[in-house]
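Predict the structure of Avidin.
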Amino acid sequence: LARGTAGSAVGLGAGCAVFILSLQCNLTGTWQNDLGSNMTITVNSEGKFNGSYHTAVSANTSHIKVSPLQGFQHNPKAQPTFGFTVNWTFSDSTTVFTGQCFVDDKDKEWLKTMWLLRQRAKSLHDDWKATR
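Done. Here is the predicted structure for Avidin.
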C-alpha cells in the first residue's frame, strides 16, 4: 500500500540540497497480506484502533467470517510499533499480533508482524496443543 512521498528537499543555496526524511506510516486504511487476508482499521488521535480482519486461511473447518480487531500503536510519526487482538467469530480462538510499520525506499508502507493464536482446549491435558 503506497501512500505518496516520504521526504522533501530543502534548498541551501548554490547547488546544495538537504533531504529531510519524514518517514511515516498511517495505519488507518485497508491492508492485504501475501496470503490474501484483508485488514481494515481506523486509528484515533490517542493511537487506539479498531476494525476488521478477514483471513484467507484457517485450520478451522468452519466457514471463514470477518472478525473484529482492537489495538494500539505507538509513535505514529515515525514508523510506529503496534499490537492488536483479533476475536475470531467463526472459531473458539483469539490471535494477538505485534509488529511495526515501515516505509521502504519506494515510499511503500509495509506492516511486519508476528502472531500467536490460542484456541480453546477441551481440557487441561489438551493445553499443550492449543497455542501456535
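The chain has no helices and nine strands.
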